[in-house]
């Protein structure tokens, strides 16, 4: 709660430092859950902190936190905002069970963020061909 609260109040640096300090202790490893990881990824995306984002990705993989559509979209968002669209695309492609409107929106937004309109449109077409219905966030 403290961790997520600091993010909501835009204390991103404190949140990341708290996460890093805690990650060295066994207490953090037993308390870290999907919510903590998602909040940490949001902070990494905000600060373009690729190093910590990749560490979180590894932690989530090891601890089985990648089976959630929320983890998929958060990772895509973090990699996109860190200008690592190839890594974002790898996350999208690896999550075949989570390729829903949220994942498509995240990857399309990632392409746009990285000034790649052609792949964004191609993924929009791919989304439609897959039978995924766009929502108001697909192309606002």
Automatic annotation (TrEMBL):
<dbReference type="Pfam" id="PF01535">
    <property type="entry name" value="PPR"/>
</dbReference>
<dbReference type="GO" id="GO:0009451">
    <property type="term" value="P:RNA modification"/>
</dbReference>
<feature type="repeat" description="PPR">
    <location>
        <begin position="100"/>
        <end position="134"/>
    </location>
</feature>
<keyword id="KW-0677">Repeat</keyword>
<dbReference type="Pfam" id="PF13041">
    <property type="entry name" value="PPR_2"/>
</dbReference>
<dbReference type="InterPro" id="IPR002885">
    <property type="entry name" value="PPR_rpt"/>
</dbReference>
<dbReference type="InterPro" id="IPR046960">
    <property type="entry name" value="PPR_At4g14850-like_plant"/>
</dbReference>
<dbReference type="InterPro" id="IPR011990">
    <property type="entry name" value="TPR-like_helical_dom_sf"/>
</dbReference>
<protein>
    <recommendedName>
        <fullName>Pentatricopeptide repeat-containing protein</fullName>
    </recommendedName>
</protein>
<dbReference type="GO" id="GO:0003723">
    <property type="term" value="F:RNA binding"/>
</dbReference>
């Amino acid at each position: 709660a403290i961790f997520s609260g600091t993010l909501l109040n835009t204390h991103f640096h404190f949140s990341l430092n708290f996460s890093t300090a805690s990650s060295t202790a066994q207490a953090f490893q037993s308390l870290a859950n999907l919510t903590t990881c998602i909040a940490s990824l949001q902070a990494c995306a905000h600060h373009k902190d690729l190093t910590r984002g990749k560490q979180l990705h590894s932690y989530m993989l090891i601890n089985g936190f990648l089976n959630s559509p929320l983890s998929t979209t958060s990772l895509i968002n973090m990699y996109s905002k860190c200008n690592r669209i190839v890594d974002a695309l790898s996350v999208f492609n690896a999550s075949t069970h989570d390729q829903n409107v949220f994942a498509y929106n995240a990857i399309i937004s990632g392409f746009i963020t990285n000034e790649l309109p052609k792949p964004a449109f191609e993924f929009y077409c791919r989304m439609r061909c897959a039978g995924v219905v766009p929502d108001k966030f697909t192309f606002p």
